[in-house]
Specification:
Strand content: 15-25%
Radius of gyration: 19 Å
Largest sheet: 6 strands, mixed
Shape: elongated
Order of helices and strands: HEHEHEHEHEE
Distance between the termini: 69 Å
């Protein structure tokens, strides 16, 4: 006896939002995740699911960008992601930038593009990627980037030597 072909189909959008969100989380962890990591490195394209339709992209980006932590190791990849996400970059909630002294100009371009779009819910961390990056040089970079402006940013430094920035709430 031959198997009958399915007579009906259903759309992902016909599922309740809670189930769709669980599916999005599973897809992101499967396509991007690593069981030993609690963060994602922005180093590859978005999963194909994000290109299905506008509604799925919007819902999946919420799950992806709001619930996860992201590491950005090079300014060029950061800029590529800003271009890819456009205004959706406002959905980022946690970014760690790994700065080295060789690419300050590129990191300045990245921050000039990111900061005007950043949500007031964003926690931005800056970590040294090179031990040779001096405190004076890093402080100068942070000042030039506008991150030491106490009217706009609350900053602290943690035990790991990261600078942590949150926008001042108006």
């Amino acid at each position: 006896m031959a198997l009958d072909a399915p007579t009906s189909t259903f759309s992902l959008l016909s599922f309740p939002a809670e189930i769709r969100n669980a599916i999005y989380e599973l897809v992101v962890k499967t396509d991007w995740g690593h069981p030993s990591q609690d963060y994602f490195v922005l180093d590859r394209p978005l999963p194909a699911l994000f290109r299905v339709c506008r509604q799925i992209r919007s819902e999946a980006l919420d799950v992806f960008l709001i619930k996860n932590r992201f590491h950005v190791y090079t300014s060029s990849i950061g800029l590529k992601w800003l271009d890819l996400l456009g205004k959706d970059v406002r959905r980022f909630r946690f970014l760690i930038l790994f700065l080295d002294h060789l690419s300050f100009d590129a990191w300045h371009r990245y921050l000039r593009a990111l900061l005007p779009l950043a949500s007031d819910k964003l926690e931005l961390r800056i970590r040294r990627a090179a031990a040779s990056l001096s405190d004076q040089r890093l402080d100068s970079f942070l000042k030039d980037a506008g991150l030491l402006d106490e009217d706009r940013w609350i900053s602290e430094r943690n035990d790991a030597g990261e600078f942590i920035f949150r926008q001042v709430k108006s």
